[in-house]
Give the backbone structure.
Amino acid sequence: MRTLRVAAPVAAVCLALLVVNGASARNPFTADELKDMDAKLTASAKRGYDLWYGARADMANNGLACANCHPDGSATNPQTFPKFMPSFDRVAAYREMINWCIENPQGGKALDPNSADMIALESYSYYLHRGVPIDTGLQTRQTAGPTPKNARGLNVPGTGIGFDKK
């Protein structure tokens, strides 16, 4: 029980520090820091949106983009990954599924899994699925995507790519 004898004095010191310094702790981030972080996340999601709708020619050699099969991120269910994928015969991460789609239906070149573009694709897809319940379900069951509050899921002007005109 050596741990208990050490833990009790440490807890007492922490409690005393709280009383002396006040019971409230600093918020982890200031409002300006949170605004900056949100802007960076939104910028990544916007880049992901552009990629989703075909901004990189090397992601396909047949004219397809992610949005051809998954408009507004439908049937992607990123919030259910990692999950067992029968086509891989193992548990796979969402970015592996993204690369599978890029290489197979789109006939393109896989992205570096740690690249800013891969993170942007994930950012966009996860952004659209915020608040969608996690339901792993069956691999064969395709579920509908989220219902975006704005056109294409992001409150941003069109990019001019494909049918997404400004």
Remarks:
- Strands lie at 83-85, 90-92.
- The chain has a mean pLDDT of 79.
